[in-house]
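Hi Y.,

Following your request, here is the sequence exactly as I used it, all 439 residues.
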Amino acid sequence: MDPAESHVPDEHRRSRVGKWLPQDHRVHQEWLSGVINHVESNPKDLHPVLEEFKSMIENDTHLYLLFTSMFQQVPKKPPYQKDPSGHSQIDGYDHMLQVLNHILTTGPSWNDQSERVGLVGLPINAMLDWPMGTPSGFALFLEPQVNAMIKKVLNAWGEYLQSPASTEVLDDHSTGWFGSTGKKDLEITGNVGESSHSFQDLYVCDPNAKHYGFKSWDHFFTREFREGVRPVAGPDNPDIIANACESLPYKVGRDVKFRDQFWIKGQPYSLTDMLAHDPLAAQFVGGTIYQAFLSALSYHRWHSPVTGKIVKAFVQDGTYYSEPLFEGFVDSHGADENGESTGQGYITATATRAIIFIEADNPKIGLMAFLGIGMAEVSTCEVTVQEGQRIEKGEQLGMFRFGGSTHCLVFRKGVQVEGFPEVGRKHNVPVRGELARVK
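Below is the corresponding structure, written out as C-alpha coordinates. Let me know if you'd prefer a different format.
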Protein backbone atom coordinates (compact mmCIF):
# COMPACT_ATOMS: atom_id res chain seq x y z
CA MET A 1 0.00 0.00 0.00
CA ASP A 2 1.14 3.54 -0.74
CA PRO A 3 2.15 5.07 2.66
CA ALA A 4 0.35 8.26 1.64
CA GLU A 5 -2.90 6.28 1.59
CA SER A 6 -2.37 4.39 4.88
CA HIS A 7 -4.78 6.72 6.68
CA VAL A 8 -7.67 5.89 4.35
CA PRO A 9 -10.26 3.56 5.94
CA ASP A 10 -10.68 0.26 4.09
CA GLU A 11 -14.29 1.01 3.17
CA HIS A 12 -13.20 4.16 1.32
CA ARG A 13 -10.02 2.87 -0.34
CA ARG A 14 -10.08 2.09 -4.07
CA SER A 15 -7.41 0.53 -6.26
CA ARG A 16 -6.82 3.11 -9.01
CA VAL A 17 -4.44 2.02 -11.76
CA GLY A 18 -2.14 4.92 -12.58
CA LYS A 19 -3.88 7.07 -9.91
CA TRP A 20 -6.04 8.79 -12.51
CA LEU A 21 -8.68 9.06 -9.76
CA PRO A 22 -8.12 9.45 -5.99
CA GLN A 23 -7.36 6.29 -3.99
CA ASP A 24 -9.66 7.68 -1.28
CA HIS A 25 -13.15 7.40 -2.76
CA ARG A 26 -14.42 10.13 -0.43
CA VAL A 27 -12.21 12.63 -2.28
CA HIS A 28 -13.69 11.46 -5.59
CA GLN A 29 -17.23 11.86 -4.27
CA GLU A 30 -16.55 15.23 -2.65
CA TRP A 31 -15.03 16.53 -5.88
CA LEU A 32 -18.12 15.44 -7.81
CA SER A 33 -20.41 16.97 -5.20
CA GLY A 34 -18.54 20.27 -5.55
CA VAL A 35 -18.91 20.22 -9.32
CA ILE A 36 -22.63 19.42 -9.06
CA ASN A 37 -23.18 22.28 -6.60
CA HIS A 38 -21.29 24.70 -8.89
CA VAL A 39 -23.32 23.63 -11.92
CA GLU A 40 -26.62 23.99 -10.07
CA SER A 41 -25.63 27.45 -8.82
CA ASN A 42 -24.32 28.66 -12.18
CA PRO A 43 -26.68 27.46 -14.94
CA LYS A 44 -25.66 28.17 -18.53
CA ASP A 45 -26.59 27.16 -22.06
CA LEU A 46 -25.28 23.82 -23.27
CA HIS A 47 -22.28 23.74 -25.58
CA PRO A 48 -23.43 23.04 -29.19
CA VAL A 49 -21.90 19.55 -29.14
CA LEU A 50 -23.92 18.74 -26.00
CA GLU A 51 -27.10 20.05 -27.61
CA GLU A 52 -26.37 17.59 -30.41
CA PHE A 53 -25.77 14.85 -27.83
CA LYS A 54 -29.11 15.60 -26.15
CA SER A 55 -30.94 15.56 -29.48
CA MET A 56 -29.39 12.19 -30.32
CA ILE A 57 -30.60 10.70 -27.04
CA GLU A 58 -34.11 12.09 -27.23
CA ASN A 59 -34.69 11.20 -30.87
CA ASP A 60 -33.61 7.57 -30.59
CA THR A 61 -35.92 5.37 -28.51
CA HIS A 62 -33.25 2.70 -27.96
CA LEU A 63 -30.67 5.21 -26.70
CA TYR A 64 -33.25 7.06 -24.61
CA LEU A 65 -34.13 3.78 -22.89
CA LEU A 66 -30.48 2.94 -22.15
CA PHE A 67 -29.48 6.43 -20.97
CA THR A 68 -32.51 6.61 -18.69
CA SER A 69 -32.23 3.11 -17.24
CA MET A 70 -28.44 3.38 -16.77
CA PHE A 71 -28.95 5.91 -13.98
CA GLN A 72 -32.01 4.12 -12.61
CA GLN A 73 -30.03 0.88 -12.22
CA VAL A 74 -27.49 2.40 -9.83
CA PRO A 75 -28.46 0.90 -6.43
CA LYS A 76 -30.48 3.24 -4.21
CA LYS A 77 -28.30 2.61 -1.19
CA PRO A 78 -24.96 3.84 0.19
CA PRO A 79 -22.44 4.52 -1.18
CA TYR A 80 -24.03 4.79 -4.61
CA GLN A 81 -26.89 7.24 -4.37
CA LYS A 82 -25.23 9.97 -2.29
CA ASP A 83 -21.79 11.25 -1.49
CA PRO A 84 -20.42 11.25 2.10
CA SER A 85 -21.94 14.67 2.80
CA GLY A 86 -25.40 13.50 1.74
CA HIS A 87 -25.58 15.18 -1.66
CA SER A 88 -27.21 13.36 -4.55
CA GLN A 89 -25.01 12.27 -7.42
CA ILE A 90 -25.78 12.37 -11.18
CA ASP A 91 -29.43 11.35 -11.48
CA GLY A 92 -30.11 11.30 -15.24
CA TYR A 93 -28.85 12.20 -18.69
CA ASP A 94 -29.99 15.86 -18.43
CA HIS A 95 -27.99 16.21 -15.23
CA MET A 96 -25.05 14.42 -16.90
CA LEU A 97 -25.05 16.88 -19.82
CA GLN A 98 -25.13 19.88 -17.47
CA VAL A 99 -22.09 18.60 -15.58
CA LEU A 100 -20.33 17.79 -18.87
CA ASN A 101 -21.02 21.38 -19.90
CA HIS A 102 -18.92 22.56 -16.96
CA ILE A 103 -16.13 20.02 -17.51
CA LEU A 104 -15.66 21.12 -21.13
CA THR A 105 -14.19 24.42 -19.89
CA THR A 106 -12.07 23.12 -17.01
CA GLY A 107 -8.79 21.24 -16.83
CA PRO A 108 -7.96 18.17 -14.70
CA SER A 109 -6.97 19.39 -11.25
CA TRP A 110 -6.28 18.43 -7.68
CA ASN A 111 -8.78 18.23 -4.83
CA ASP A 112 -7.86 19.08 -1.26
CA GLN A 113 -11.27 18.96 0.39
CA SER A 114 -11.20 17.62 3.94
CA GLU A 115 -7.38 17.74 3.75
CA ARG A 116 -7.37 14.61 1.61
CA VAL A 117 -5.52 15.64 -1.52
CA GLY A 118 -6.28 13.62 -4.62
CA LEU A 119 -5.99 13.96 -8.37
CA VAL A 120 -9.14 13.86 -10.48
CA GLY A 121 -7.46 13.26 -13.82
CA LEU A 122 -10.54 11.67 -15.38
CA PRO A 123 -13.39 14.04 -14.51
CA ILE A 124 -15.90 12.49 -16.94
CA ASN A 125 -15.01 8.99 -15.79
CA ALA A 126 -15.46 10.18 -12.21
CA MET A 127 -18.94 11.41 -13.07
CA LEU A 128 -19.90 8.06 -14.66
CA ASP A 129 -18.15 5.85 -12.09
CA TRP A 130 -21.36 4.10 -10.94
CA PRO A 131 -23.64 4.32 -14.03
CA MET A 132 -21.19 2.70 -16.44
CA GLY A 133 -21.09 -0.38 -14.18
CA THR A 134 -24.79 -1.12 -14.71
CA PRO A 135 -26.18 -3.56 -17.33
CA SER A 136 -27.58 -0.64 -19.35
CA GLY A 137 -24.28 1.20 -19.04
CA PHE A 138 -22.45 -1.86 -20.38
CA ALA A 139 -24.77 -2.02 -23.41
CA LEU A 140 -24.78 1.75 -23.94
CA PHE A 141 -21.03 2.34 -24.04
CA LEU A 142 -20.54 -0.38 -26.65
CA GLU A 143 -22.89 1.44 -29.07
CA PRO A 144 -20.91 2.82 -32.08
CA GLN A 145 -23.30 5.80 -32.37
CA VAL A 146 -22.72 6.71 -28.72
CA ASN A 147 -18.95 6.38 -29.02
CA ALA A 148 -18.94 8.57 -32.14
CA MET A 149 -20.77 11.28 -30.17
CA ILE A 150 -18.47 10.90 -27.17
CA LYS A 151 -15.53 11.39 -29.54
CA LYS A 152 -17.07 14.72 -30.64
CA VAL A 153 -17.48 15.75 -26.99
CA LEU A 154 -13.88 14.83 -26.16
CA ASN A 155 -12.63 16.72 -29.22
CA ALA A 156 -14.46 19.81 -27.93
CA TRP A 157 -12.82 19.35 -24.53
CA GLY A 158 -9.49 18.85 -26.29
CA GLU A 159 -9.86 22.25 -27.97
CA TYR A 160 -10.15 23.83 -24.53
CA LEU A 161 -7.18 21.85 -23.16
CA GLN A 162 -5.05 23.17 -26.02
CA SER A 163 -6.10 26.77 -25.34
CA PRO A 164 -4.32 29.32 -23.10
CA ALA A 165 -7.36 29.35 -20.80
CA SER A 166 -6.56 25.79 -19.70
CA THR A 167 -3.39 26.95 -17.94
CA GLU A 168 -5.53 28.09 -14.99
CA VAL A 169 -4.85 24.69 -13.34
CA LEU A 170 -1.07 25.11 -13.82
CA ASP A 171 -0.60 27.35 -10.79
CA ASP A 172 0.79 26.87 -7.30
CA HIS A 173 -2.52 26.86 -5.45
CA SER A 174 -3.62 23.75 -3.56
CA THR A 175 -5.60 22.51 -6.58
CA GLY A 176 -2.88 23.42 -9.11
CA TRP A 177 -0.40 21.08 -10.71
CA PHE A 178 2.46 23.19 -9.33
CA GLY A 179 1.03 23.41 -5.82
CA SER A 180 3.10 21.83 -3.07
CA THR A 181 1.49 18.40 -3.37
CA GLY A 182 1.18 18.36 -7.15
CA LYS A 183 4.77 19.40 -7.83
CA LYS A 184 6.17 17.02 -5.23
CA ASP A 185 4.27 14.07 -6.70
CA LEU A 186 5.33 15.01 -10.23
CA GLU A 187 8.96 14.98 -9.09
CA ILE A 188 8.64 11.67 -7.20
CA THR A 189 7.05 10.06 -10.24
CA GLY A 190 9.62 11.49 -12.65
CA ASN A 191 12.60 10.40 -10.56
CA VAL A 192 11.40 6.73 -10.54
CA GLY A 193 13.22 6.07 -7.25
CA GLU A 194 16.61 6.55 -8.92
CA SER A 195 17.34 10.29 -8.58
CA SER A 196 16.22 13.48 -6.83
CA HIS A 197 15.90 15.96 -9.69
CA SER A 198 13.60 18.97 -9.52
CA PHE A 199 10.74 19.29 -12.02
CA GLN A 200 12.70 21.83 -14.05
CA ASP A 201 15.74 19.52 -14.16
CA LEU A 202 13.60 16.61 -15.38
CA TYR A 203 11.49 18.33 -18.02
CA VAL A 204 11.89 20.95 -20.74
CA CYS A 205 10.32 24.08 -19.23
CA ASP A 206 11.08 27.60 -18.03
CA PRO A 207 10.76 27.79 -14.21
CA ASN A 208 10.98 31.59 -14.35
CA ALA A 209 8.04 31.97 -16.71
CA LYS A 210 4.34 31.91 -15.83
CA HIS A 211 3.03 28.32 -15.72
CA TYR A 212 6.66 27.17 -16.21
CA GLY A 213 6.38 28.32 -19.81
CA PHE A 214 3.60 25.91 -20.77
CA LYS A 215 1.08 27.52 -23.12
CA SER A 216 -1.79 25.11 -22.38
CA TRP A 217 -2.64 22.13 -20.21
CA ASP A 218 -1.99 19.82 -23.18
CA HIS A 219 1.42 21.44 -23.71
CA PHE A 220 2.21 20.60 -20.08
CA PHE A 221 0.79 17.09 -20.39
CA THR A 222 2.90 16.22 -23.44
CA ARG A 223 6.05 17.73 -21.92
CA GLU A 224 9.41 16.27 -22.90
CA PHE A 225 12.30 15.06 -20.78
CA ARG A 226 15.49 17.08 -20.89
CA GLU A 227 18.32 15.62 -22.95
CA GLY A 228 20.10 12.84 -21.06
CA VAL A 229 17.38 12.24 -18.45
CA ARG A 230 16.17 9.07 -20.22
CA PRO A 231 19.10 7.53 -22.15
CA VAL A 232 18.44 4.67 -24.57
CA ALA A 233 19.36 1.27 -23.16
CA GLY A 234 21.97 -0.59 -25.18
CA PRO A 235 21.92 1.63 -28.27
CA ASP A 236 24.44 -0.72 -29.94
CA ASN A 237 22.95 -3.97 -28.61
CA PRO A 238 19.92 -5.07 -30.69
CA ASP A 239 19.09 -7.83 -28.19
CA ILE A 240 18.07 -5.22 -25.58
CA ILE A 241 14.45 -4.11 -25.94
CA ALA A 242 13.82 -0.54 -24.79
CA ASN A 243 10.77 0.39 -22.73
CA ALA A 244 8.24 2.12 -25.01
CA CYS A 245 6.34 4.08 -22.33
CA GLU A 246 7.10 5.39 -18.84
CA SER A 247 4.90 2.86 -17.04
CA LEU A 248 4.26 0.18 -14.42
CA PRO A 249 4.09 -3.49 -15.47
CA TYR A 250 0.60 -4.97 -15.52
CA LYS A 251 0.83 -8.41 -17.09
CA VAL A 252 2.84 -10.72 -19.33
CA GLY A 253 0.77 -13.07 -21.49
CA ARG A 254 2.36 -16.03 -23.24
CA ASP A 255 1.10 -18.45 -25.88
CA VAL A 256 -1.64 -15.96 -26.77
CA LYS A 257 -4.54 -17.04 -28.97
CA PHE A 258 -5.82 -15.62 -32.24
CA ARG A 259 -9.19 -15.07 -30.55
CA ASP A 260 -10.32 -15.46 -26.96
CA GLN A 261 -13.05 -14.32 -24.57
CA PHE A 262 -11.40 -11.08 -23.45
CA TRP A 263 -14.54 -9.94 -21.56
CA ILE A 264 -14.42 -12.69 -18.89
CA LYS A 265 -12.52 -12.55 -15.60
CA GLY A 266 -8.87 -13.18 -16.30
CA GLN A 267 -9.27 -11.37 -19.63
CA PRO A 268 -7.13 -13.53 -21.91
CA TYR A 269 -5.62 -11.55 -24.77
CA SER A 270 -7.48 -11.81 -28.10
CA LEU A 271 -5.01 -10.97 -30.88
CA THR A 272 -7.38 -10.34 -33.76
CA ASP A 273 -9.53 -8.01 -31.64
CA MET A 274 -6.52 -6.19 -30.20
CA LEU A 275 -4.98 -5.69 -33.64
CA ALA A 276 -8.26 -4.55 -35.24
CA HIS A 277 -8.61 -7.72 -37.38
CA ASP A 278 -5.49 -6.80 -39.33
CA PRO A 279 -4.17 -9.70 -41.48
CA LEU A 280 -0.83 -9.45 -39.65
CA ALA A 281 -2.49 -10.58 -36.41
CA ALA A 282 -2.17 -14.24 -37.42
CA GLN A 283 1.63 -13.98 -37.26
CA PHE A 284 1.50 -13.42 -33.49
CA VAL A 285 -0.49 -16.53 -32.52
CA GLY A 286 1.34 -18.37 -29.74
CA GLY A 287 3.48 -15.32 -29.02
CA THR A 288 4.07 -13.04 -26.03
CA ILE A 289 2.37 -9.82 -24.89
CA TYR A 290 3.79 -7.39 -22.34
CA GLN A 291 1.31 -4.84 -20.94
CA ALA A 292 1.99 -1.86 -18.67
CA PHE A 293 -0.06 1.14 -17.57
CA LEU A 294 0.76 4.84 -17.44
CA SER A 295 0.42 7.13 -14.44
CA ALA A 296 -1.51 10.39 -14.52
CA LEU A 297 1.70 12.10 -13.38
CA SER A 298 4.01 10.51 -15.91
CA TYR A 299 5.53 11.23 -19.30
CA HIS A 300 3.09 10.38 -22.11
CA ARG A 301 5.11 10.03 -25.30
CA TRP A 302 5.84 6.62 -26.86
CA HIS A 303 9.25 5.49 -28.10
CA SER A 304 10.35 2.65 -30.33
CA PRO A 305 11.50 -0.45 -28.43
CA VAL A 306 13.70 -1.57 -31.37
CA THR A 307 15.54 -0.32 -34.43
CA GLY A 308 13.76 -1.15 -37.67
CA LYS A 309 11.11 -0.10 -40.16
CA ILE A 310 7.50 0.96 -39.64
CA VAL A 311 5.32 -1.57 -41.48
CA LYS A 312 1.92 -0.10 -40.58
CA ALA A 313 0.71 2.67 -38.25
CA PHE A 314 -2.90 3.66 -37.65
CA VAL A 315 -5.47 4.58 -34.99
CA GLN A 316 -8.42 2.25 -34.45
CA ASP A 317 -11.51 4.00 -33.08
CA GLY A 318 -13.19 2.16 -30.24
CA THR A 319 -15.01 2.57 -26.96
CA TYR A 320 -14.40 5.20 -24.28
CA TYR A 321 -16.37 4.17 -21.18
CA SER A 322 -16.97 0.47 -21.72
CA GLU A 323 -16.03 -1.83 -18.88
CA PRO A 324 -16.69 -5.58 -18.54
CA LEU A 325 -19.81 -6.59 -16.66
CA PHE A 326 -17.84 -8.25 -13.87
CA GLU A 327 -16.83 -4.74 -12.75
CA GLY A 328 -20.45 -3.75 -12.22
CA PHE A 329 -23.31 -4.51 -9.87
CA VAL A 330 -23.66 -8.17 -10.80
CA ASP A 331 -22.56 -9.58 -7.45
CA SER A 332 -24.12 -9.10 -4.05
CA HIS A 333 -21.18 -6.99 -2.85
CA GLY A 334 -21.85 -4.33 -5.51
CA ALA A 335 -19.50 -2.72 -7.98
CA ASP A 336 -15.95 -4.05 -8.25
CA GLU A 337 -13.75 -1.63 -6.33
CA ASN A 338 -10.76 -2.62 -8.45
CA GLY A 339 -12.58 -2.02 -11.72
CA GLU A 340 -9.91 0.04 -13.44
CA SER A 341 -7.33 -2.62 -12.61
CA THR A 342 -9.41 -5.62 -13.63
CA GLY A 343 -10.50 -3.93 -16.87
CA GLN A 344 -7.00 -3.26 -18.26
CA GLY A 345 -6.93 -6.43 -20.36
CA TYR A 346 -10.48 -5.88 -21.63
CA ILE A 347 -9.78 -2.45 -23.08
CA THR A 348 -6.90 -3.77 -25.21
CA ALA A 349 -9.60 -5.21 -27.50
CA THR A 350 -12.27 -2.51 -27.23
CA ALA A 351 -10.87 0.96 -26.56
CA THR A 352 -9.56 3.53 -29.02
CA ARG A 353 -5.95 2.58 -29.68
CA ALA A 354 -2.91 3.28 -31.83
CA ILE A 355 -1.47 0.19 -33.55
CA ILE A 356 2.06 0.27 -34.94
CA PHE A 357 3.73 -2.74 -36.60
CA ILE A 358 7.54 -2.61 -36.65
CA GLU A 359 9.91 -4.92 -38.54
CA ALA A 360 12.95 -5.04 -36.26
CA ASP A 361 16.40 -5.21 -37.86
CA ASN A 362 17.26 -7.92 -35.33
CA PRO A 363 16.14 -11.20 -36.99
CA LYS A 364 15.63 -12.75 -33.56
CA ILE A 365 12.71 -10.29 -33.13
CA GLY A 366 11.44 -9.64 -36.65
CA LEU A 367 7.88 -8.31 -36.86
CA MET A 368 6.48 -6.94 -33.60
CA ALA A 369 3.67 -4.58 -32.63
CA PHE A 370 3.14 -1.64 -30.30
CA LEU A 371 -0.33 -0.66 -29.01
CA GLY A 372 -1.03 2.66 -27.27
CA ILE A 373 -4.46 2.21 -25.70
CA GLY A 374 -6.68 5.06 -24.50
CA MET A 375 -8.97 4.95 -21.48
CA ALA A 376 -12.09 7.06 -20.93
CA GLU A 377 -11.44 10.70 -21.84
CA VAL A 378 -7.72 10.04 -22.30
CA SER A 379 -8.24 8.41 -25.68
CA THR A 380 -6.57 10.76 -28.14
CA CYS A 381 -3.74 8.74 -29.66
CA GLU A 382 -1.40 10.65 -31.98
CA VAL A 383 0.92 8.60 -34.20
CA THR A 384 3.98 10.56 -35.35
CA VAL A 385 5.59 7.92 -37.63
CA GLN A 386 4.61 6.79 -41.12
CA GLU A 387 4.56 3.51 -43.01
CA GLY A 388 7.96 2.72 -44.50
CA GLN A 389 9.85 5.04 -42.14
CA ARG A 390 13.16 3.91 -40.64
CA ILE A 391 13.32 4.32 -36.89
CA GLU A 392 16.06 3.94 -34.30
CA LYS A 393 15.52 2.37 -30.90
CA GLY A 394 14.33 5.07 -28.52
CA GLU A 395 12.98 7.44 -31.18
CA GLN A 396 9.45 8.79 -30.78
CA LEU A 397 6.49 6.82 -32.15
CA GLY A 398 3.69 9.10 -30.95
CA MET A 399 1.90 10.25 -27.81
CA PHE A 400 -1.26 10.29 -25.76
CA ARG A 401 -2.92 13.69 -25.76
CA PHE A 402 -5.06 14.74 -22.78
CA GLY A 403 -4.07 11.54 -21.01
CA GLY A 404 -3.13 7.91 -21.51
CA SER A 405 -3.97 4.52 -20.20
CA THR A 406 -1.96 1.46 -21.05
CA HIS A 407 0.24 0.00 -23.75
CA CYS A 408 1.28 -3.39 -25.09
CA LEU A 409 4.24 -4.87 -26.92
CA VAL A 410 3.42 -7.95 -28.98
CA PHE A 411 6.02 -10.53 -30.07
CA ARG A 412 5.70 -13.51 -32.40
CA LYS A 413 5.89 -17.16 -31.36
CA GLY A 414 9.48 -18.31 -31.10
CA VAL A 415 10.85 -14.93 -30.03
CA GLN A 416 12.60 -15.76 -26.75
CA VAL A 417 12.09 -12.52 -24.86
CA GLU A 418 12.96 -12.63 -21.17
CA GLY A 419 13.65 -10.41 -18.17
CA PHE A 420 10.47 -8.32 -18.11
CA PRO A 421 10.16 -6.23 -14.90
CA GLU A 422 8.06 -7.75 -12.14
CA VAL A 423 4.45 -6.76 -11.61
CA GLY A 424 3.90 -4.88 -8.35
CA ARG A 425 6.99 -2.68 -8.37
CA LYS A 426 6.64 0.75 -6.76
CA HIS A 427 8.14 2.99 -9.46
CA ASN A 428 7.70 3.27 -13.21
CA VAL A 429 10.10 1.53 -15.55
CA PRO A 430 11.90 4.46 -17.23
CA VAL A 431 10.98 5.06 -20.86
CA ARG A 432 13.81 4.07 -23.24
CA GLY A 433 15.41 2.09 -20.39
CA GLU A 434 15.98 -1.67 -20.59
CA LEU A 435 12.71 -3.61 -20.59
CA ALA A 436 13.79 -7.12 -21.61
CA ARG A 437 16.30 -9.07 -23.70
CA VAL A 438 16.04 -11.49 -26.58
CA LYS A 439 17.99 -14.72 -26.35
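The mean pLDDT is 85.

Thanks again,
Q.
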